[in-house]
Each structure stands twice: as C-alpha cells, then as structure tokens.
Amino acid sequence: AGDSARSAEDLSAVAAAVEELSATVTEISRQVAGAASIATEAAREAKASDERLHALTQSAERIGDVIGLI
Q: How far is CA 15 from CA 10, 20, 49, 56, in A?
C-alpha cells in the first residue's frame, strides 16, 4: 500500500510538472509571436522611413537644380 501511495504521489508530481511545462511553452510561444509582430512592424516603419528619405533626397536635388538656375 505504501509503494502504491508513493507511486500515486510521484505520478501526481509528474502531472503537475508537465502542466507547468505546458504553460511555460505556451507563454514562450505567445512572447515569440509578440516579438515577431514587433519585428514586422519595425521593418515596415523602417521601409516607410527609407521611402520618405528617398523623397526628401529627390526634393533636395530639385531645389539644388532650381538654385543652380538662379
């Protein structure tokens, strides 16, 4: 009876550990998804900034051309 009670306790401890591990994996997955979303948004904003910088460079070149004509 003692061995079977000990086995039941061990099984219960293993089940609790598996549940904790599962919760941890779920949380890590959630955080990785969040990090991926942030990285995607950062890449989008970097591309938009690059496009704005390109437009400003073209405008500066045009201004330089106008000044050259004056």
A: 9, 9, 51, 61
